[in-house]
């Protein structure tokens, strides 16, 4: 199996599978509670980011705060896609709905996966995301659903970058649901309720 450490928690056979993508410095257990809140019966697949930034796990390299190494984003998104395909087979998840749930850096790799590999991921709930890839291939995303929640005062995921991401998704035909909150770099209770309704 593609070398990504991960945790897997089995769930109900008819519930969608949640792919949990933690933020910088996190780990597979970070979003388990969020996953349970969003869909209590879902199987949970939670890999660990393979990149270390001074010991903090991330999904891809960055040049500095808020400036991504876009070549690495593409490489790591494809690595995550390969992992998902192998996990689907290993855990007998073929044919099941798969929804990425990501926060911050995890939301960004989930967003990159959505743009770059619609053959692997067509649904994502992303909290505090930015535009992960500025010029992705022009895939038809008309079968893709994305929920995005961002804070209006978030210095780490600035709203203009998220707005560019929303515009790109819509241009490619994705069904986009946008949730805004007045706070910063966080997941609010209202955002969780909105994501739950979307899911």
From TrEMBL:
Q: Which Gene3D superfamilies match?
A: alpha/beta hydrolase (3.40.50.1820)
Q: Where is the Phospholipase/carboxylesterase/thioesterase domain?
A: 12-198
The UniProt entry, under Pfam families, shows: Abhydrolase_2
Q: Does the keyword Hydrolase apply?
A: yes
Q: Which domain of life is it from?
A: Bacteria
Instruction: Print the keywords alphabetically.
Output: Hydrolase
One GO molecular-function entry: hydrolase activity
Would the keyword DNA-binding be found if you checked this record's keyword annotation? no
Q: What is this protein called?
A: Alpha/beta hydrolase
From what organism does this protein derive? Answer: Amycolatopsis acidiphila
């Amino acid at each position: 199996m593609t070398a990504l450490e991960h945790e897997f928690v089995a769930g109900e056979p008819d519930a969608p599978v949640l792919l949990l993508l933690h933020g910088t410095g996190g780990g597979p257990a970070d979003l388990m509670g969020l996953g349970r809140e969003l869909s209590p019966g879902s199987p949970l697949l939670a890999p660990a980011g393979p990149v270390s930034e001074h010991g903090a796990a991330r999904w891809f390299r960055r040049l500095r705060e808020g400036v991504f190494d876009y070549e690495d984003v593409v490489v790591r998104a494809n690595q995550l896609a390969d992992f998902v395909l192998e996990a689907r087979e290993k855990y007998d998840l073929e044919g099941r709905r798969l929804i990425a749930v990501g926060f911050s850096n995890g939301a960004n790799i989930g967003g990159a996966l959505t743009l770059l590999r619609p053959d692997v991921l067509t649904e994502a709930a992303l909290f505090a995301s930015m535009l992960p890839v500025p010029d992705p291939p022009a895939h038809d995303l008309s079968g893709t659903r994305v929920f995005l929640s961002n804070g209006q005062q978030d210095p780490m995921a600035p709203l203009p970058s998220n707005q560019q991401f929303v515009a790109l998704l819509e241009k490619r035909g994705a069904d986009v649901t946008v949730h805004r909150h007045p706070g910063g770099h966080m997941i609010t209770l209202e955002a969780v309720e909105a994501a739950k309704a979307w899911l």
